[in-house]
Amino acid sequence: MMVMKSQNLALITGLAAVLASCSFSTGTAPERAGEVLIEGALGEQVGLVFVDADCAAPADREVGTPFSCTAMTEAGETVTFEGVVDPDDSIFVAASNVIVANEMSVVETEAAGVLGENIGVVIDPSDVDCPDESTVLVDDRLRCEISDAASGDRYEMFLTAVGFELREGFTQRSYEVGDQLN
């Protein structure tokens, strides 16, 4: 397996939009508002149904105070969330281990650029195939496939996304080509 690290700064800012996030005005405790937001609007935005949301109470209600949450998908996957108390009695919550469907093309483009640069060939982003739906990272990884345009051979390809920062997204991403599939 070959690991390729992303050095493309222009695409790094593009992946900040990978955040699945929402703001919510609340008249209730931030942790309760986070649970309502996750099981409602945030789930709808992401395209996943979240159940059993549970948020830890922030240390206080001061602006900037962080808190964390978890929820399950209908498929039984655990999703983690980071939240913060915002001004005007509101909160901001983001899924910290999900790549949303509408950002998969950004992942495919970045993967093609990074991997192509590292092996010295041009890879068309259409040769990278990531899921069409929002996907929960497993062990910080997203599984995609990449095709060798010259031979037609297909390989596993993994994005590892770590260093999640609220409102910024994943600060560290690397790509790895795995086993041949056909």
Q: How does the SSE layout of this entry go?
A:
Blueprint: E1 2-5, H1 9-14, E2 20-25, H2 30-46, E3 50-55, E4 66-73, E5 78-86, E6 90-95, E7 98-99, H3 104-119, E8 128-129, E9 135-136, E10 141-147, E11 154-165, E12 169-180
Antiparallel strand pairs: 1-12, 2-6, 3-4, 4-5, 5-6, 7-9, 8-10, 10-11, 11-12
Structure overview:
With 182 residues, this protein is an alpha+beta fold. The protein has two domains: 2-16 and 100-180, no CATH class; 20-97, no CATH class. The chain has helices spanning 9-14, 30-46, 104-119, and strands at residues 2-5, 20-25, 50-55, 66-73, 78-86, 90-95, 98-99, 128-129, 135-136, 141-147, 154-165, 169-180. Strand 10 (141-147) and strand 11 (154-165) form a beta hairpin. The longest helix is centred in the first third of the chain and has 17 residues, at 30-46. The two termini are 16 Å apart. 36% of the residues are buried. Residues 1-19 have low confidence and may be disordered.
Key features?
182 residues, 3 helices, 5-stranded antiparallel β-sheet, alpha+beta, 2 domains, 12 strands
Quick summary:
By secondary structure, the chain is an alpha+beta fold.
Helix content percent band: 10-25%
Provide the β-strand percentage band.
35-45%
Q: How far apart, in Å, are the first and last alpha carbons?
A: 16 Å
Order of helices and strands: EHEHEEEEEHEEEEE
* Structural classification: alpha+beta
Low-confidence stretches: 1-19
Total number of beta strands: 12
Q: Give the oligomeric state of the chains in this entry, treating copies of one chain as homo and distinct chains as hetero.
A: single chain
